[in-house]
Amino acid sequence: MCWAIPGKVVEVKGFLAKVDFEGSVKEVILAVDGVKEGDIVMVHAGVAITKMS
Fold first, then answer.
1. Going by C-beta distance under 8 Å and a sequence separation of 6 or more, which residues neighbour residue 42?
2. Fewer CB within a 10 Å sphere, N or C end of the chain?
3. Can you tell me the distance from the alpha carbon of 22 to that of 14, in angstroms, rounded to the nearest whole number?
4. pLDDT at 47
5. What is the DSSP string of 15-53?
6. Sign of torsion, CA 17 24 43 8?
7. What are 14-48's pLDDT values in tens digits?
């Protein structure tokens, strides 16, 4: 089982995105298609593994 944390996408650049985790912005790798600014993603170990919205 993995522990994933939700965050809001604030910027997308190819296969990378900047994600806001309640005020802490981190760059993550996108492992899902169709992610755009404003989407909520679940992130585990620096990789967005699921798009929630």
1. 4, 5, 6, 48, 49, 50, 52
2. N
3. 23
4. 98
5. TEEEEEETTEEEEEEE-SSS--TT-EEEEETTEEEEE--
6. negative
7. 999 999 999 999 999 999 999 999 999 999 999 99
Place of tokens 């944390």: 5
> Which range of residues forms the domain containing residue 44?
5-51
Phi-psi region of 49 (alpha: psi -120 to 50; beta: other; left: phi over 0): alpha
Number of domains in the chain: 1
Q: Is the pLDDT of residue 1 over 90?
A: no
pTM for the structure as a whole: 0.91
